[in-house]
Amino acid sequence: MQTNANNVDEFIAECKDKLKDNPGCGHTYYNMGVAYLSKGDFFEAESAFREAVENSPTLAEAYVQLGGIAMHQGDLDGCLNYNQLAIQARPMFATPHGNVGFVLLQKGEVNKAARSLEKAVKIDPKFVQALTTLGSAYLMENDVERAIDVCRRALEVEPMFGPAWNNLALAALEQGETAKAVEYVDKALETGFDVPQGLLDEVEQYR
Length: 207
Fold this sequence. Notes:
Layout lengths: L7 H14 L4 H13 L3 H14 L4 H13 L3 H14 L4 H13 L3 H14 L4 H13 L3 H14 L4 H13 L3 H13 L6 H8 L3
GO molecular function: protein O-acetylglucosaminyltransferase activity
Pfam family, one: TPR_19
Organism: Oceanidesulfovibrio indonesiensis
């Protein structure tokens, strides 16, 4: 969307003007929702995204944003439902598959989570968050080698992605490779990632 706005408030005002002329434009509602999100105004953002999908039911990105707001509010089921709607709207959109996998993992449905995350990385092989979350799922399934593989793939894309180093540390401990676990924890800390205290305590004895 072309804009002459100098700040977020001007951009929102532009969107509102456009909607006066074209009140059924889902994309304008979506852009306005993103602007409200950037201001931290979740109430207005949610309202705009709801209008977006009402006017453009196939606008998968708006469902994903609604899912993000639901997650922010601690509503896992709401986040899951919105991302499933996004998948229905656009099956080959990797992000909602990744989000569904993340939520299912939070809910303890590890096998289902892994299958959703596998779909996400099949669609987008460089989807770093999905690769790393899939690594977590594989670790929970005791499939350590596959966990290592997907986390290394994530680090090929983004070498400073702390959660992937954290997962590699867990995998190294599973394999009894304590020196590697120490190395990987240090790598995770270098990225600024908040390594869980339990893991820090465990590797400390191997320094």
